[in-house]
Write a structure and sequence with these properties.
The protein is 34% helix and 25% strand. By secondary structure, it is of the alpha+beta class. The longest helix has 19 residues, at 61-79. The structure holds adenosine-5'-diphosphate and magnesium ion.
């Protein structure tokens, strides 16, 4: 690939997103120079998507641009941080301008939704891989840590779980098409990071995590970090119609262990319940109580018929099959 092609690509990225006043120097110098608001901490997270591992060869580039940023925004959301800046390291097999334009469309649309500026990155040649790093601001005293849940806290979920896992399984099994396909594909390819909810939970929730590995695995992370256990009432799990149909057949796999949902799982102490719930109602945030934190370690599931599961050890991440 000629060097000038990469120069072109960089120019293309230079104007991809809007400008922020806290960016002293953006794309074009050796480093970006950025101003963090006084009293806030910088919240930083990075994720890589690799072709063949995290997405299929030939995946829609606009969706990839969206998802590469969305999974990172979800981490900011889970901390209660306000999104600000983003960097992008792209490894491309070739300078395919149609692909790039579509990728940047998806990426920049989501970035501008949150007022983020692309402030730098790197572009190299090789097998397709996308690394996005996000930077946000949060009051360090209020940030939503995994380790701050307490026995007695109520456990809540945003949105619904299991859709992305079910979508992936349907693709893998080459299932006959159904009326739910478009909805499920959207949930897998265009996840919605719960950024506003995360910020609303500052000072209201004790602990939070985004559900990227599956509900039980991520609940396990809260439990082990907080030294608590949990009791989850499966009847209360928020699920869509297609995932609900699986649950009704006794297949809880998608709801409990499907990853890639990017919903928020959070714990709230009883004294803050009413205030938290009315704030969510006012903001139009859809949340559902699904259980509570308990003293003894391990996770117990209460099935709709009242039967209890065997205790699942903290952080047990082989629940996925
Ligand atoms: P250097 O050799 O100093 O690392 P580069 O030639 O890699 O500089 O990049 C030049 C400028 O373009 C830098 O400001 C860098 O942050 C930016 N840049 C390069 N690739 C990207 C990209 N994919 N997205 C955003 N900015 C990029
Ligand atoms: Mg470089």
């Amino acid at each position: 690939m000629a060097v000038s092609e990469f120069d072109l690509i960089r120019q293309y990225f230079a104007n991809a997103t809007g400008m922020r006043p806290d960016v002293l120097i953006g794309i074009g110098d050796d480093c970006a120079l950025l101003r963090v608001p006084i009293g806030k901490s910088l919240a930083v997270s990075v994720d890589t998507l690799v072709e063949g591992r995290h997405f299929q060869p030939g995946a829609d580039p606009t969706s990839l641009g969206h998802k590469a940023l969305a999974v990172n925004l979800s981490d900011l959301a889970a901390m209660g941080a306000e999104p600000a800046w983003v960097t992008l390291a792209l490894t491309l097999p070739k300078a395919d301008t149609a692909w790039l334009r579509a990728f940047v469309d998806g990426f920049a649309a989501l970035a501008s939704e949150y007022g983020m500026q692309l402030v730098g990155g790197d572009t190299t040649r090789g097998p397709l891989s996308i690394t996005v790093q996000v930077h946000g601001f949060v009051d360090p005293a209020l940030a939503l840590k995994r380790s701050n849940a307490r026995a007695g806290d109520r456990l809540f979920l945003s949105g619904c779980v299991g859709d992305a896992g079910l979508a992936l399984q349907r693709l893998r099994d080459d299932m006959p098409s159904s009326a739910d396909d478009a909805y499920l594909a959207r949930r897998l390819d265009r996840p919605t990071p719960r950024v506003a909810l995360g910020q609303l939970l500052l000072g209201r929730a004790n602990a939070a995590i985004d559900v990227s590995d599956g509900l039980i695995a991520d609940l396990g992370h809260i439990c082990s970090a907080s030294g608590a256990g949990a009791r989850v009432e499966l009847e209360r799990l928020p699920v869509s119609a297609p995932v609900g149909a699986e649950c009704a057949r006794g297949n809880w796999q998608h709801a409990l262990a499907g990853g890639d949902d990017y919903e928020l799982l959070f714990s709230v102490e009883e004294s803050r319940l009413d205030a938290m719930q009315s704030a969510c109602r006012e903001a139009g945030q859809q949340i559902q109580e699904i259980g509570r934190l308990v003293d003894n370690s391990g996770i117990v599931l209460v099935y709709p018929d009242g039967r209890l599961s065997e205790e699942i050890p903290d952080g047990f991440d082989h629940f996925r099959t």
